[in-house]
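re: ur question from the group chat, yeah i did fold both. here u go
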Amino acid sequence: MPQACRHPGVRLAERYDAVIIGGGHNGLTCGAYLARAGLRTLVLERREVIGGAAVTEETVPGFKFSTFSYLMSLLHPKVIADLELRRHGFEVLPASDMFAPLPGNDHITFSDDIGRSQASFSRFSRKDAAIYPAFDRYLGEATQIVRRLLLETPPDPSCRDWRSFRDTAKLLWKYRKVGSKLFRLIDLLTMSADAYLSEWFEDTHIKAVLAYYCGIGTYAGPRTPGSAYVIMHHIMGEHAGAGGWGFVRGGMGTISQAIAAAGRAKGMEVRTGVEVIAIDSDNGRATGVTLADGSRIMAGIVASNVSAKLTFLKFLKPDLLPESLLRDIRTYRTYSAAFKINIACERLPAYTSFDAATCGFAYPTYTHIGPTIEYLERAYDDAKWGDWSREPFITPVAPSFVDDTVAPPGKHVVHLFGGHAPYTLAQGDWDSRKPDFVKTVLGVLDRHAPGFSDGIIDMQVLVPPDIEAKIGSPHGHIFHGELSADQLFFARPAPHWADYRTPIKGLYQCGASAHPGGGVGGVPGHNAAREILRDRRG
């Protein structure tokens, strides 16, 4: 509570042990862990709703949209267990196997059941179907290594101080048995998705099923070097369902609300509609934050869940930071081409190529429209020159098929996530051209599900500038920055500052700009809290 005033009209700053900037799921996670450890913790959120990209909003009356993120996959089991999220309302509903309509009224499906995937693949290539289990094991072994790395704090291998040397040595010893599998990680980090998959598969439809993930949220095509890693990033979830995906009852905001409830149960405070404009410091140590109304909140620990660009380039004076760090943050790549269209509708898409008996599930709640490697690459080619994709890849998902809380009886919610829609258009601007863009996207969907557009009640259209304006993610990038070799682990978001700390003592990074990156996983928040408590213990 505010302290008593010593002089009329002057309010002294409030004091907390820790202040978290940004009430996204990572900020809430960090705050919940700190509160659980006994720290008096305050989370500040600029918007009126908590959750950042993991929110549920009733943008159209009666319809609850998962406005930004739309499926649960990466939320770490440790976070779920530690914070007892199921006790606070977190419940995952299964999505169907992935369904991909193809030209000629055909389709291909992909499942976490290897046999079902093989059966579908065999219609296109018996060779590819036969080798798929070996590929799954091969990729799975590399994925297991990266899953273990998720909870690591990246050391600085270039530092000569004893603590950095010790941390690097411990990491190397811990992973000494990786051996030849190290080269599998190098392949994933350097090869294009197409080149990587072509070492195993021959059919373009099968390769597209797996390469599709490389474009989700990234400014890349399947033939972009390094895009193979993004395939693995999207399948690292350790939960039931196709590729680990599922819907959250009540929408993605339920995750954020559950984390907030867990934190509040330990004394964490959360305030919305509060904008931070500066991080305060004195003699190289964080002292709190300044708000837009001019008031201050004092704390010896400040954790920033907002992007690294905002944290270092907006909230701090440049003379407080090393020039090398400022350069690395300025050049940290955040350009985005992802779009999201949230639709309230009378009926779900009726795909002409879907047959429940053939596919083995009642309805394709999780769909990929991106039939070939060539299709996916052309979608990127269009964006590369500053226009939206003439044939965009689209992920239509239908949560209302399994979740009766997000739409009125007999009505539905459909989310369309896809690419590419460049942040900046070469000709015109998004304000004037957005209606034509929407026609392009819906035209592709209607080709596979005729008449769907006729049943639209209302919609919300989000292109990268809209996403940036709403949640502050630079250029609307859903991961806060590209998932590329030079922006991962030791170097995320910048070399020498990947351990969640900053040059300002007591100031930490706890958002998606830090290791391991974006996705609703809670790992940056978890790891940052661990390092904060480690420093606090000395």
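okk and heres the other one u asked abt
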Amino acid sequence: MTAPLLSVRDLTTAFRTPEGWREVVKGVSFNVAPGETVAIVGESGSGKSVTSMSIMRLLDPVNARIGGAVTLEGRDLLSLPEEDMRHIRGKDIAMIFQEPMTSLNPAYTVGRQIGEVLRHHDGAGRAEARAATAALMERVRIPNAAARLDDYPHQFSGGMRQRVMIAMALAARPKLLIADEPTTALDVTIQGEILELLKELQEESGMGMLFITHDMGVVAEIADRTVVMYRGDCVETGTTRKIFSRGDHPYTRALLAAMPRIGSMAGEAWPLRFDRVDTATGSIEPQGPVADTVDRSATPVLSVKNLVTRFNVGSDLFGRSTGAVHAVENVSFDLHQGETLSLVGESGCGKSTTGRSILRLIEATSGDIQLDGFDVRALGPGDLMRMRRTAQMIFQDPYSSLNPRMTVGQTVAEPMIRHRLAGRGEARRRAAALLERVGLSPAMLDRYPHEFSGGQRQRVAIARVLGLNPKVIVADESVSALDVSIKAQVVNLLMDLQEERKIAFLFISHDMAVVERISHRVAVMYLGEIVEIGPRAAVFGAPQHPYTKRLLEAVPVPDPARRHHRLTVAPEELKSPVRPRGFTPPPRHYREAAAGHLVMETH
């Protein structure tokens, strides 16, 4: 029997609190063999990330206490001097974190940060490190890698920053890679390609991998064995095939039941709520479809025609721009009251820019936007403020969109006061009712955002938007970072609100399984253009455009039988949306594949 690369025995981790030491990891044990992938799964607060930080000894020793035994190839990591541990980090064990913006130094170029790993651990010279860095960036599919070595983290999209982090982690060819939610923020095609890349690297080098995630589809695709954690305890462990087919613990069964599965909407005419799953007992309560509230004969509440949004880049000797990012190019669609239209596509395809252009958070270059009687692009400041009572936006990260210095009561009440819909006392009473409506207690009014979980903060953001009783809500990746059971609850909440208030949703997402569940219609964007748009059943059941097929093919399926599955659609080199000054896009033509199902013709 092969000796384990990593052995974790009775690992306990406790944090110092005003009430004393609180144990958050409770006697966890597992092994990782060379070339093996072990997944640790569980929702936020289960202790899975603290487990990885404990293994790497990245917790503050003053406020954290680690017990048990952690050995790497027989070396006891918990008893090593800090100087020796520094040599092991990055060289023998590398780690990919979930949020790359907090892991990358904003003051240094990405080339310097990746190259520093090579110079420190491999003794590479400056030129050698620079060439190797470019090769690593190409390997994780960063386009124009050599030209982007001197760019800073803020110049990359979230998905691109995560690829930089993966390149940095792999730079010193570690024996063990700890990947903490490394694909959560990535588009499905990029996620699929990163998983393929990690599989290939394991086959080449025999690298062991500890993969931490709450996405059971990813677990099925990549993990040999799985450890299930719940509130600090390891409640179940075994081969991934056994966990998926015969999960013994109620929490394991609940995780699998809450997982959105692509293809689950076959035969369903309208959006379908997620089943309510009790994570303590594993019980499942079906919730049923959303009532049809869409009147397609009425005037659309939102009509977008030939929308173009471009950003100038570069400059010549005379200060003129040398080119432009064609972020949104000739986009047109209608949205009816009570309808959900989902915009899907990879990072940089223009879907978020489309949503922000519609609400005038970004100024469009040209086009026509009619929103509930407002000619959006012609509005002055006063009318613009009135329009924003009709249309609101829910952002991806509620923590950055909520003021940390305001209580949630003040946060929810503030738009009502600002738009003169209520005085302070009445706004507070309405805020309490809105918190209750989104599943939070009115007793939470005087708490601050940092006192809430991610799912609760997203509910606060939804309550804040509802205070203005909008007709249109642009939900920009509003559930992408949530745990599976919380995601299901928030999506159900949005569908309940739509049924009650006939709200029209422009739902921007890269989570295709959720999109299939919530949508009436779907628009697929690629390089700023809509390449396919139509009813949800048509786009998912009979995709026509090659890019739509790629998106659907890349969605991870929670079936371990696909463990050695390889993508049948070859990955494409990411194209750049930057065009030279004066560039005129070619005319586009669409064919109608079925009623209301339009597909851009390819040449």
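fwiw on the second one: The first helix runs from residue 48 to 56. The chain has a mean pLDDT of 87. idk if thats what u expected
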